[in-house]
Write a structure and sequence with these properties.
This protein has 7 helices and 3 strands, in the order αααβααββαα. It is mostly helical. The chain has a domain of 87 residues: Orthogonal Bundle (Arc Repressor Mutant, subunit A), CATH 1.10.10.10. Strand 2 and strand 3 form a beta hairpin. The termini are far apart. InterPro entries: HTH_MarR-typ, MarR/SlyA-like, WH-like_DNA-bd_sf, WH_DNA-bd_sf.
Length: 171
Amino acid sequence: MARPEDALAPDLPAEHVPGDVADVPGAAPRPAETWLRIVQVHDRITRRVDSALHRRHDLSLTGYEALRRIAEAPGERASMGELAEALGISRAGVTSTVTRLVTEGLVVRERSSGDRRLLHARLTPAGRAKVEEARPTHDDLVAHLLTLLGDDAAAVTDALARVSAAARTRR
């Protein structure tokens, strides 16, 4: 009796007919493959950019991102909670990062005038200079690496934004 896959490839021996749709070029990847690629890309780009920032500016990627977020915040001032959310790290991680930036004279900690329990990080002139000095290193390297997305950049960005938004909601 003829099998359905024989009708699709009558000239190919049975061993050349994929048994699994995931083995067909262009077919949708399995979730585990997609997850692995996301983790690999994040890890590799992060290490590469972190290394460049350390070498050229004596600044970690996390430190740079914290400075950038503070620089972009109203009044160049952000709460620890805002930084933790923006950077995707714990409050303890933000505290550690901000402590290093304070020690280096790049930010100062301030209490909120409206709620004395709330702690903010404010950029110093040295912090503003450091983030502006490091920005081209960060942005140029990231842009260079992401050019490999080619014409798929908009679709990839949109898809990742949807996943990110869905992952924010807690179940």
